[in-house]
Specification:
The chain is mainly beta. It has one helix and eight strands, in the order αββββββββ.
């Protein structure tokens, strides 16, 4: 009898130890979050680095793709030109994610509108642009995630010949709430 209990206990323990955790990938999941970080123009002749605030919302159309809307604002020191330079953006796009573990890497492409208030390397008040995002989130639970995002913003009137021509780069630490799975 003692041998049977020992065998049953070992089988139960090995089953628990060898069973994988439930994947956290969900379809039709809503995301709402925000972030703080820093940003700067890659060509820093005019405008230096700045604090950045961002808000975003997304919807998981599948367990691999999200569509979303992002709002960002940054306030740059205008350097020799004096004063401050504000950059506001609103962009929509899609992200491809590997949402099978608690760590969720993703890449995304967004298109949007940028408004510039003050001296910037772009040289105008408004422009359309695109951005490439690279990020990594950590799912604390089914409803809460935190992560980081690196985003390169490019502007339509002067498409860069290299990544350091007038591109704006932002780095954000983000937190989000998820629901609807």
């Amino acid at each position: 009898m003692r041998a049977r209990v020992t065998i049953a206990a070992l089988l139960a323990a090995s089953t628990v130890a060898l069973t994988s955790e439930r994947a956290l990938a969900f379809e039709k999941q809503w995301h709402l979050g925000g972030g703080v970080g820093v940003g700067g123009f890659m060509a820093e002749e005019t405008v230096g680095t700045a604090p950045v605030l961002g808000l975003y919302g997304a919807y998981g159309v599948s367990d691999m793709f999200d569509v979303g809307l992002e709002l960002n604002a940054s306030n740059h020191d205008a350097g020799e030109a004096g004063g401050r330079a504000w950059v506001y953006s609103v962009a929509a796009g899609a992200a491809y994610k590997l949402d099978v573990l608690q760590w969720i890497p993703y890449v995304g492409l967004l298109a949007g509108f940028y408004y510039f208030d003050g001296p910037t390397p772009v040289g105008r008040d408004a422009d359309f642009g695109a951005s490439l995002t690279i990020g990594l989130d950590y799912a604390i639970s089914r409803n809460v995630a935190m992560g980081g995002q690196l985003r390169f913003h490019f502007f339509s009137n002067e498409l860069p010949s290299s990544i350091d021509d007038n591109a704006l780069m932002t780095v954000l630490i983000r937190a989000e709430y998820r629901w609807g799975f």
